[in-house]
Amino acid sequence: MTILRVIIAADPPPRLDKALARDVPEEASLSRTRLARLIAEGAVSRAGTALTNPKLKVEEGDEIDISVPEAQDYDVVAQDIPLDIVHEDEDLIVINKPAGMVVHPAPGSPDGTLVNALLHHFGGDLSGIGGEKRPGIVHRIDKDTSGLLVVAKSDRAHHGLAAQFEKHSARRSYRALCYGVPSLGDPRLMGSKGISNSGNGEIVITSGLARHKTERQKQAVYFDGQGRHAITRARVLERFGAPEALALVECRLETGRTHQIRVHMAHAGHALIGDPVYGGRRKVSQKAISGEAYAAVTGFKRQALHAAELGFVHPGTGEEMLFEADLPEDMAQLLAALRAE
Prior knowledge:
The protein has helices at about 15-25, 30-40, 115-120, 155-165, 185-190, 260-265, 290-300, 330-340; strands spanning about 1-5, 45, 50, 65-70, 70-75, 85-90, 90-95, 130-135, 135, 145-150, 170-180, 195, 205-210, 220, 230-240, 245-255, 305-315, 320-325. The strands form three sheets. Strands 6, 7, 9, 10, 11, 12, 13, 14, 15, 16, 17 and 18 form a twelve-stranded mixed beta sheet that branches. A four-stranded antiparallel beta sheet has the order 1-4-2-3. Strands 5-8 form a two-stranded parallel sheet. It starts with a strand and ends with a helix. The protein is built from eight helices and 18 strands. Helix 1 packs across helix 2 and helix 7 (about 290-300) packs antiparallel against helix 8 (about 330-340). About 20% of the residues lie in helices and about 30% in strands. The protein is elongated. The protein is an alpha+beta fold.
C-alpha cells in the first residue's frame, strides 16, 4: 500500500474527483476512472476522514491522502503464444494480430487470446492497469480481422492512449477487398442515406451504429438518433474484373465502433469479400473474373479486412508514431490472383 498526498492547488474545480484528476502528479499514473474507484472504496481521505462523495467541495491547500494498493495479479492465465511484435518500449507494445485470434478473453473464448499471449510475454513487467497487472486494451480488432493494435503497459500509457482514441485523433487505416467498385459517380451509392462526397476522392459514410433489433450478434446502421456516431472514409485503390466487379479499398476510421467498416461497407452496397455476417448473398459472377481468381474469391472464408496503418502520439515521449503492416498471406494471395486478371 502506498499513501499519496495531494495538495489541492489554486482555483480548484468544485468537485473532489475533478480536483484530484487535475492535481494528482502525472507520475502517479492514476486515471480518472481509477480515482473514482478509489473514492468509492474509501481510499481517499482528508485529516483521517474518508471522502466517499466525489462531488464533495474542496479548497485550495487541502491535503488529500490517497491509499493506493499494490497492483493485483490479473485472473487470466498466461499462455506461450507467438506474437508478431512491431514495436515495444516501457510504456506500450504494438502487435500485428493474426486473423483468427480474439483480443480479450470472453465467454466462448476463455483462452488462446491476445491478452493470454501478452501476459506470458510481459511476465512481471507490468506496472498495473486500474489496480491489476494486466495489459491495457485501448481498442480492439475483430477476431477474423488482421492487423495493428496498440496495448498499454501502464496506467499512464493507458490513460494517454485512451484519450487519443476517444478524441479520434489516432490514425487507423485499413485495407479491404469488397464486392463492386464504390464510385462517386454512382447515383445509387451517392443517393443512399448517410453517404456523401468528401471532395478529395473519398466516400464518407456517416450513421449511428447499434445492435441489430432482431439479430443480436450484428450491428446495424441507424439515422434516427439511435446508436453511437460513426464515420468511415473509403477510397478505391484498385479495380478488378470486367465489368468492375471487385475493388481494393482503403478505409479510414474517424470513429472506432464495433464492426464499423464491415457494417458501413455493407450499407453502401459493397460488402467485404468473405464476410460471413454482413456479406449477405453477395457474389461475384464467373463471367467477371477468371476461374483462378473466382476460386480465390469464393474460397476466402473470412472478411477481407486488415488494419494496415496505426498512428498516435506516444503517451510518454510525445513523439508522433506511425506503424504499417503488410497484408497477411491469405489476403496477399487473394490480391495476387485478382491482379493476375
